[in-house]
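Please fill in the sequence for the structure shown.

STRUCTURE ENCODING:
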């Protein structure tokens, strides 16, 4: 048998761990087990060639790693009595946030590779969270085992599976069953199996929640970026459906829930586009939920020429949740409650920067929530209206500012804030109509100009509903 030629000791200063360890071992191995304290899909950037060969031969990878959690989440998970209740839900919520960050920070082709490998079962992940006597610590181990038949190669050292890990000074030791160091390989193998099978009482082990898997699956393009051995894919029914549809030139995809109807349909669309048989596709369905699902899939799978997501949009964190897209800023008349000005910006643009563009110049008083604090002091602030009168800016203070006051001061301040909010609330009424009655919560378009046009249409419709509800009802 041809064994991979790997030195017994490697370090990032003198050696190339990708070329000298990972690539030759991935091209040799049938299975790969990895336990590592920190893993990101950036590791795939360096190893995509070896992993593609590994996948094409039916290789399987098991990965134990630490989830990225806040201290509060970690404490709640450790304190839970079982893995199927509150701990699992807490982990699921934290991992869903990590998926959003993944979408925003990673290159599209690397996200696509990882998503497909998880989808095909090539990569199986479990998360380790220390408990009991290790409760104050992290899962910080770093070791791996490559297998082929009865032979194996294991390694252990300080390097994490991330882009940054390869930029540090790190070193590893290598052991081989065929080179007189089998007892070390056996020890690594036994340790991995003990952790994977939940036999270590100082570690809580979690599989990836299905909701998180589904979120990751949405990041795939219609075509997997590697080939699979004939008949090895659990999604072969999709390929059969595509072939049958193209042969018959029409049909209905009668497929069970979760088997990939949307992905299959998009594969058909791609084939027809590539062959030049179609130039346009019309997607129609009953209800916004399914339309939103399609919109998300299309945005993720049909990139622009630079293979990037919408270049005009941006990500922003609101509370503990990341969002990617746009923001609508509106100016509302305090007497009629109708919108007079609409601005569209990327989601990360701060509200206060748009204040001047939302004013008509007729205002005597401007109301806004705490996101507009300091609006009247900005260089671009409109300080006088068209009649020359000074404009008063009545902006809600942050709750944290009120806590610093005395009890009597807090009472007076809360009363003043309530007065401001009772006027400013008319903005929320407008957004309530747009989001609830008009069901406009997610954008389905790319590009800032399209968003601006859509926002103007939606808020114009909201004005009609707010101004003349009896007329519309009749």
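FILLED IN BY: designer on duty
SEQUENCE:
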């Amino acid at each position: 048998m041809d064994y991979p030629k790997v030195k017994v000791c490697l370090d990032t200063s003198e050696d190339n761990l990708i070329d000298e360890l990972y690539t030759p071992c991935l091209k040799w191995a049938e299975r790969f087990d990895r336990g590592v304290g920190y893993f990101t899909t950036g590791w795939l950037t360096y190893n995509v060639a070896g992993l593609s060969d590994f996948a094409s031969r039916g290789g399987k990878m098991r990965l134990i790693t630490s989830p990225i959690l806040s201290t509060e989440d970690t404490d709640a998970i450790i304190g839970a009595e079982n893995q199927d209740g509150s701990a699992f839900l807490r982990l699921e919520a934290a991992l869903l946030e990590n998926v959003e960050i993944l979408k925003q920070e990673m290159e599209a082709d690397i996200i696509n590779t990882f998503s497909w490998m998880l989808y095909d079962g090539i990569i199986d992940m479990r998360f380790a969270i220390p408990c009991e006597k290790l409760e104050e610590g992290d899962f910080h181990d770093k070791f791996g085992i490559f297998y082929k038949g009865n032979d194996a190669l294991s390694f252990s050292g300080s390097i994490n599976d991330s882009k940054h890990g390869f930029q540090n000074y790190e070193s590893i030791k290598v052991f081989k069953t065929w080179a007189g160091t089998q007892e070390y390989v056996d020890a690594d193998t036994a340790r991995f199996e003990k952790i994977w099978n939940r036999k270590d009482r100082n570690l809580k082990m979690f599989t990836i929640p299905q909701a998180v898997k589904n979120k990751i699956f949405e990041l795939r393009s219609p075509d997997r970026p590697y080939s699979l051995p004939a008949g090895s894919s659990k999604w072969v029914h999709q390929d059969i459906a595509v072939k049958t549809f193209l042969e018959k030139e029409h049909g209905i995809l009668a497929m069970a829930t979760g088997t990939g109807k949307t992905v299959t349909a998009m594969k058909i669309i791609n084939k027809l586009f590539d062959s030049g048989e179609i130039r346009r596709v019309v997607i129609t369905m009953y209800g916004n939920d399914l339309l939103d699902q399609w919109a998300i899939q299309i945005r993720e799978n049909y990139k622009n020429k630079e293979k990037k997501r919408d270049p005009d949009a941006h990500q922003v964190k609101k509370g503990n949740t990341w969002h990617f897209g746009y923001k609508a800023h509106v100016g509302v008349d305090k007497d009629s409650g109708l919108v007079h000005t609409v601005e569209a910006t990327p989601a990360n643009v701060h509200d206060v920067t748009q204040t001047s563009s939302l004013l008509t110049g007729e205002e005597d008083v401007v109301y806004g929530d705490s996101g507009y604090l300091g609006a009247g002091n900005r260089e671009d602030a409109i300080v006088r209206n068209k009649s020359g009168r000074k404009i008063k800016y009545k902006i809600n203070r942050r709750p944290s500012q009120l806590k610093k006051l005395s009890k009597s001061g807090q009472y007076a301040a809360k009363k003043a804030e309530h007065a401001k909010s009772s006027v400013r609330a008319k903005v929320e009424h407008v957004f309530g109509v747009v989001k609830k009655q008009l069901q406009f919560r997610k954008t389905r378009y790319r590009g800032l100009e399209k968003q601006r046009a859509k926002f103007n249409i939606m808020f114009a419709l909201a004005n009609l509903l707010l101004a003349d509800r009896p007329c519309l009802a009749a």
